[in-house]
Amino acid sequence: MAAIYSLYIINKSGGLIFYKDYGSAGRMDTNDSLRVASLWHSMHAISQQLSPTVGCLGIELLEADTFDLHCFQSLTGGYLNPFIYLFIYKHTRYWFFLPSTGTKLFVVCEPGTQHMEGLLKVIYELYTDYVLKNPFYEMEMPIRCELFDINLSQAIQKDRVALLGR
Amino acid sequence: MAPVAPRSGDAIFASVEHVNAELFTLTYGAIVRQLLTDLEEVEEVNKQLDQMGYNIGVRLIDEFLAKSNVSRCVDFKETADAIAKIGFKMFLGVGASVTNWDADGTCCSIVLDDNPLVDFVELPDTCQGLYYCNILSGVVRGALEMVSMKTEVTWVRDMLRGDDAFELQVKLLKQVPEEYPYKDDE
């Protein structure tokens, strides 16, 4: 069985911009993956509010009996670049300003899979290299960069080889 | 995840691929030249360079954070140090130092040890108002904005204008705490 089930990247406002699954287990269609991504975005924000002390960065690892979920959030974002939502209720317009959070990357993997933090960091570096530096990539939009795909597959492959060798 | 010590700017600079310095300098020169032709007004060119830098900065910051292992800075002083010691070294290959702090720690100067952008440049009389390296100030402004710091970045000394160094003044206008709880309804 593959060690890694799937990889998600969520933009600063909680939209899914990249999804890939590996192996047969835990496949999702587009709608499901979008829903899961925005749910995770909210859960991550709630976890920060649950913290008894300030400065909590949110869930880093979620352990369940059938999977582990490792999450990494970048430090960029914040109140200076808020997202503006319009909400109409009984013909009255309400505007909401929500601060952007960091870009989030998370992998869903077999329980007990090691070195996922390291892998997420490598993926973040690939994202900064092959997505953000692509002049035709528009920030916060879905990632369709071939170079990113290629390098990502290599990184995951390398990780699998490392896992087999343990 | 266990905190990892920040990598030095030198180490990161050494680990990435480089292009020929002259190609870089000449390319930048060609861009500035083209902007002068297109926009005609020196003031407009300054603005455009700053905007181009800003667009670079908002993307560059993620790479900086990913590769340098720098974590959250506790104050603006630490931020300025990270930019000068790691940022400039990592992306431009030059060192820089932080000086001229004001009393309340919101304004400082970053003095570049060297500036590869200006290697062959002499400003003609017609371009005296030009901040040739204005792209750099835009980069710093854009990058800091993505980590919740609104800044104003200006050149206070420019060797092309006869000063003895390249000095960028970074002034912190607004810093927003990134912690919850946010007030959603304001």
Automatic annotation (TrEMBL), chain A:
InterPro entries recorded: Longin-like_dom_sf, TRAPPC
One GO biological process term: endoplasmic reticulum to Golgi vesicle-mediated transport
Compartment(s) where it occurs, according to its Swiss-Prot or TrEMBL record: Endoplasmic reticulum; Golgi apparatus, cis-Golgi network; Golgi apparatus
Keywords: Endoplasmic reticulum, ER-Golgi transport, Golgi apparatus, Transport
Database matches in SMART domains: Sybindin
GO cellular component: endoplasmic reticulum; Golgi apparatus; TRAPP complex
CDD domains for this protein: TRAPPC4_synbindin
Description of how the protein assembles with itself and partners: Part of the multisubunit transport protein particle (TRAPP) complex.
Entry similarity comment: Belongs to the TRAPP small subunits family. TRAPPC4 subfamily.
Name of the featured protein: Trafficking protein particle complex subunit
Organism classification: Eukaryota, Viridiplantae, Streptophyta, Embryophyta, Tracheophyta
From TrEMBL, chain B:
GO biological process: Golgi vesicle transport
Keyword Protein biosynthesis: no
Listed transmembrane segments: none
GO cellular component, one term: TRAPP complex
Superkingdom of this protein's organism: Eukaryota
CDD domains the record matches: TRAPPC3_bet3 (cd14942)
Subcellular location(s) per record: Endoplasmic reticulum; Golgi apparatus, cis-Golgi network
Alphabetic keyword roster: Endoplasmic reticulum, ER-Golgi transport, Golgi apparatus, Transport
Similarity-based family: Belongs to the TRAPP small subunits family. BET3 subfamily.
Complexes and interactors: Homodimer.
Biological role: May play a role in vesicular transport from endoplasmic reticulum to Golgi.
Name of the featured protein: Trafficking protein particle complex subunit
Protein's organism: Salix dunnii
